[in-house]
Amino acid sequence: MTDTHDPQVLGGIGAADAGVAGASSPDVGQRQRKKLGFMFWAAVTFLSLLLFAAIFADLLPIKDPTKAFRGTAKDGPSLTHWFGNDGAGRDIFSRSIYGAQVSLLISAVGTLFALTLGGLVGLASGYYRGRVDQYMTAFLNATLVIPGLILFLALILFLDPFANYRIPVLIFSFILLSIAPISRVIRAATLSWAERDFVLAARTIGARSGRVMFREVLPNVAPSLVSYSLIIMANLIVVEGAVAFLGLSVPPPTPTWGDMINKGRNNLETAAHISLLPAMMMFLTVLSLNFIGDKLQERFETRESVL
């Protein structure tokens, strides 16, 4: 007769159970072993350094972005001027760092407020459904019909009397531009989580709708919301660059990436670095935000599929 209390027997049973579990879900181990990868951490490092430089630009040993250096107009990169000089003799590297202040500030604040407002709209629409969902979905679809850049330019021109407060105007326009895409993502995620067993159990025991939404649904929706917000932030940087290229962003002498690209387009044949290096900074920033957002979204979707 076999002793069921024998440690060897118990170990064998545990190993057998583990083998059965592993055989029933062969991709679980791959999901758990999946790492973010070198490129993810390279993107995080680049954004961290750029953010640090933008915040502490006044304290860093970089050149004055508004000062023209004699005899160095249109000079290419050198040990003295890492990115060279623009047509007016100003240091492109320092102007790129100060230009990051504008792009990161406007896109980050705009994304934060849009995240809050759009998240609430999408959460309520996906949770309550019915007429609430119908009205909100119709409104969001109506705003998505208009191309984003055209809507943004229309808002900027409509708010032109407040040009002295251009940064708040840009942020406000970014918020209106980003609410609909964020709301649609949160609504779709809420619809999938609202029918889970733990949410139905909370409703059964009499929990209020507000408590169920913010204590049960929102924590599970938040990871997807954060990852998608990085992609929204990258899109807003591109839109801000396009608006600055048209001369509708922050007025001079404050440098912006889009304005720097615009000012150097007449010198592409003789001094291409004037436009290419600020464009490279914008490209790497947008690429890093998109890459991090995609990787985080993959990680969060993997976790949801395992549950």
Task: Describe the protein's architecture and organization.
The chain has 307 residues and is mainly α. 72% of the residues lie in helices and 0% in strands. It contains 11 helices and no strands. The relative contact order is 0.13.
SSE diagram, text form:
Elements: H1 7-24, H2 28-33, H3 38-55, H4 92-128, H5 130-145, H6 148-158, H7 166-193, H8 197-204, H9 209-245, H10 257-263, H11 273-306
Helix pairs in contact: 3-4, 3-11, 4-5, 4-7, 4-9, 4-11, 5-7, 6-7, 7-9, 8-9, 9-10, 9-11, 10-11
Count of DSSP E strands? 0
Q: Could you tell me how far the N terminus lies from the C terminus, measured between alpha carbons in angstroms?
A: 40 Å
Q: Based on helices, strands and strand pairing, what is the structural class?
A: mainly alpha
Largest sheet: none
Low-confidence stretches: 1-33, 302-307
Key phrases:
307 residues; mainly alpha; elongated; 11 helices
Entry summary:
With 307 residues, the protein is mainly α. The chain has helices spanning 7-24, 28-33, 38-55, 92-128, 130-145, 148-158, 166-193, 197-204, 209-245, 257-263, 273-306.
